[in-house]
């Protein structure tokens, strides 16, 4: 696989990551999920770093993008565990909404979902959204949709990490030969050599 095809591979992965994370960001905004909104925002920034690193031949941008992808994989594995209620994690807790009481937009608005709200809607906190007592008829439960989102993000991050490592390795291999004409240091060819004048 040549440098150009590796570059196009990584650029394609970055574009896919941007499309999927913007879609995810929209639904997190609709559900007021503040922790994922913040992390998604950082992911958008680092994917742009990866895109420009591949496009402009910047190995340092690719290293930054690769390190972020490792953290991004960790975040998405945490989300998968969160929505699966692994260990002490509870998907009904206020961990992801930072105490606002919001939940995933897909809990009530998923395809075919019919929420049943309590008849007595008095709440201790008037600013917390009212959650339904139960939701019936959903094609996919909201936690399955969120797990699928995180799984797709993990797969794209692994592909991006692989592409960035391969492309960065190619750039560093090409960097081994020093270009005297465009390099920073002056070469002997450009140094003016003057004979020593004897008096």
TrEMBL record:
Transmembrane feature ranges: 34-55, 67-86, 150-172
Compartment(s) of residence: Cell membrane
Keywords recorded for this protein, A-Z: Cell membrane, Membrane, Transmembrane, Transmembrane helix
Recorded topology in the membrane: Multi-pass membrane protein
One annotated GO biological process: regulation of sodium ion transport
UniProt GO cellular component terms: plasma membrane
InterPro entries registered for this protein in UniProt: Na/K-Atpase_Interacting
Signal sequence, renumbered to the chain: none
Classification via Pfam families: NKAIN (PF05640)
Family: Belongs to the NKAIN family.
The name this protein goes by in its record: Sodium/potassium-transporting ATPase subunit beta-1-interacting protein
Organism: Aedes aegypti (Yellowfever mosquito)
Gene: 5576960
